[in-house]
C-alpha cells in the first residue's frame, strides 16, 4: 500500500450552508422540573377557584384575589428556585424537605437483663417509653407514640393515631425488672392425672359437674416454688402457657381453664411489688391465648349452611348471632357458666374478661352490659395496684372487642380517682415497708395501667373530655404520675390550648414518684408538636424555664433542654435562642459535664438547624459556635459539623458573601477535612468532599472577582487533602476567568488581563496537588483551553506541555463504579479532544513547527498500550484528521484574539512538508498494525482489522484528494482489506460507499471522473 497521500482542500463555509439543517427554538426544556409544572398547575387551579368565587361574592373575591396574589408570588419564587435545579436535584430537595432523619441504634451494647432479652426476641423491644433520663421516667410518651407509627393499628380520619398495647409491652418488660427472688404456686401438673368425673345429661348434673371439677382443682395439693430468679420465673410462666396449649390440643378443656385460673390468681400476689407490671404483661399474654382458643373453638363449631348449600361453611368475620347454631351458643354459655362458678374474684374477673369476645356468638348488645358489670366487680379488689391493672386489662380487651363502646372507660377512670386515696393507707404503707420500697417507686408502678386507660379515653375524644378529666384530677389526685399520663394521652392541640393550665398544674403537682422535670419535658413535647396561642408563648416559656434553669443536676436539666430548645427556635428570634444556648453551656460546663451529654447536645444542634433558614442570624449569635466547641470528642464533633454544613448547603438558597457565615463555615469545613485520613472510607471522603463543594458553590462576591479569588486561595490552603475539592476549586478559578472575559466582552484591559493570568496561575499551582492522574490530565487540558480563550498563550502552552508529559504516568486501570477498569478508553478520549484543541494552538516560535504534535506522538509511541487493543491506532487516526485540518488554508474554527497556524504560516511550503512527514509516519504505523492483524488467525483480530480498515477508508475518502492515483489506490486497497475476511459491517460499508458517491457528485468537474473511477473500482 502507498503511504503518500495529498489532502483535499475544504471550504468549510460552503459545506456548512449545503449540509446544515433548519431547526426551531425550544420553548420548553425537556427536563423542566416536575415541581415547577406542578406549582404552575396548582396556581392555575387557584385562579379558577377565585374567578368562580368572584361571581358569587364581590367582597369575598377581593380578599381572595389578594391572597391569590400572595400565593402567586410564593409560587413564582418557588418556581425560580426550582428552575435552577435539574430534575434529580429537585427530587433530592423534595426528599430532604420531608424531614427524614437517620435511625439510631436501639441496642446499648451491654448485657441485657432477662426481661429485656425476652422483649427483644419477642419483637416488642422498641422503646416507647419517655425519653427522660431519670429512672422514674414515663413508660410511654409522645415521642414514642410518634416513633411507632408502624405499630399503630388504628388511625382516625383526622390523622390521630392510637398506639396498641403490643407496642407498649416491650417497654414495660424492659423497665420493671427485679433482682429479688420470686415464687409461683402451681397445681395443674398433678390435676391432669386424676380421673375426671363423667358428665351428666341433666341440667342440674351439668352444673354440679362443673362445680365439682373446679372444687377438685381448688382443693388439689398445690406446689409452691420459691427462690426463683426472674429468668426462672419467666420460664415457669412460659411452661404454663405451653401446658395450656398442649392441654387444649388434647381436648382437655377443663385443664386449660384451670391453668388460666391459676395464672389469673398470680395477679393477686404482690409479694415482689416492683415486678408487678411485668408480671401483669406475662400473665395476660397467657389469658389472651386462652381467650383466643375458646373463641376459635366456638367459631369452628359454628359452621352453618348457606341458603341452597349442601356443605356447612365456617362463620365469616362479620357474622351475626343469628347465623350461629344453637349447639355453638350452648357451648358458649357453658364456658361463661364455668367461669361464673369460680369462687375467687380476681381469677373470675380476669378469665371472663379473657373470653369477652365470645359474647358475639350470643347477642349484639351484651358488650355494654358486660363491660359495665365487670367494671363494677373491680371495685371489690382491695389492693389499689392490683385494682388499676385489672381495669387496664378490662379496657384493653374491651377496646379490642368493642371499640365503639366508650361509657365504661369514664367510669373506670372515675373509680380510679376515687380509689387513688388508698395509696396513702396504712395497709399500703405496711407493704412498702416490708418490701423496702419507697412511695415514689410504688407510684411509678401505676404508670403503664393509667396511661393505657387514659389513652383509650383520649382517642378521638373532644377537648371537653380533657377539661373534665383535669377537673377530676385537680379535685381528687394531683399525682405527677397521673398528670404525665394525661399529657401523653391527649392530642397536642388540646394540650397546647390548655398550656397555661398545665403549667399551673405542674407547679402544684405532687411529684412523688415522678420528677417535675419529666412533666415539663412531656409538656414541651406537646408544645413543639402544636403551637400554643401566640399571646401566651413567651409567658409559657418564662414560667417553665424559670423552674428548669434552677436545676443544678445536669441530667434533669438536659432532659428538658433537649426538648424545649425547639420551642424558642420555632417562635422567637436570635436573642431568645442565644440566651437558651448560653444557659445550656453554663449548666454543662461545670465539671465538664458536657462529656456525658453528647447525644442530647447533638439533638439540640439538630433541632436548631432544622428550623433555621437565616444563617447570618445563626452564626451572629455569640453562643452558637462556643456550643459547637462543646463537642470535644472527634467523631461526635465531625457529625455535628457535618449536620451544620448539610443544613447550610440545603437551606441557603442564595449565594452569600457574609464574612460571619464564611468564617464559621470555613472552620466547620476544616473540622470535616481534618477528620479525613488514610484510613477513612471512600464513602466518607466522598461525602465530606461533596459537602465542602456545596458550601463553596454558595459563596459569591458578585462582581468583586478579586475577593472571590482570594477566598479560593484561602479555601485551597484549608482543604488540601481532598481531590474533589481541589478539582472544584480549579473549576471555580476557570469559571472566574471566563466571567471576567464576559464582563469585558472578550477585550481584556491591562487590569483584567492581569487578573486572568492570576486565576490561570492559581489553576497551574493547584492541579499538581491532585492525586488522581486522570483528573489532573483533564484539568490541564481544560485550564489550557481557558488560557487560550483569554489570549494567555505562554500559560496555555505550559498547561499543554504538562498534559503531554503526564501521559506516561497514567495507571493501567482505575476504579469506576467500584470496579477496576482499563484507562485506555479514557486516554483515547482525552487525546482526541486534545488533538481538536491543538488545531487552534499556534506553534511556539522557539520550538519549531508542529513541536507539540511531534512531542505528543513520541509520548504515544513510548506509552505501554494494551496488546489486544486498538487505542493507539484510533489516536493515530485522530492525528491524521488533525493534519488534514491543519493543511487547509482556513481552519474550521478559531479562537478570537489567537492567531492559529493558518494565519502564522499562510500555506507556507515548509509547514505543509512538516505536515506531510507526520502523515506519512502515522499512516505507516497504522498500515503496519493492520498487517499484523492479518497475520493473526484469530477471528477477533480479523474483526478488529476490518473495523480499523473501514475507519481509515472513511478518513481517506473524506480528507484526501482521490484524484491522486496514490490516494485512490490506498482507498481501494483499504476497501478490499475490509472485505477480505468477511468480518465487516455490511450496513456501515453501504453508508461509506453512498457517501463516496455523494462526494463524487460534489467535487469539481475536473476531479469527478477520478472519483467515479474509485466508486466503480469499489464495486
TrEMBL record:
Ranges annotated as biased composition (Basic and acidic residues): 1-13
Span list, region Disordered: 1-33
Keywords from the UniProt entry: Endosome, Protein transport, Transport
GO biological process terms, semicolon-separated: endocytic recycling; protein transport
Entry keyword annotation includes Kinase: no
Primary site of residence: other
Coiled coil regions, renumbered to chain: none
Compartment(s) of residence: Endosome
GO cellular component: endosome
InterPro entries found in the cross-reference section: VPS35L (IPR029705)
Family (UniProt): Belongs to the VPS35L family.
Protein name, UniProt field: Uncharacterized protein
Species classification: Eukaryota, Filasterea, Capsaspora
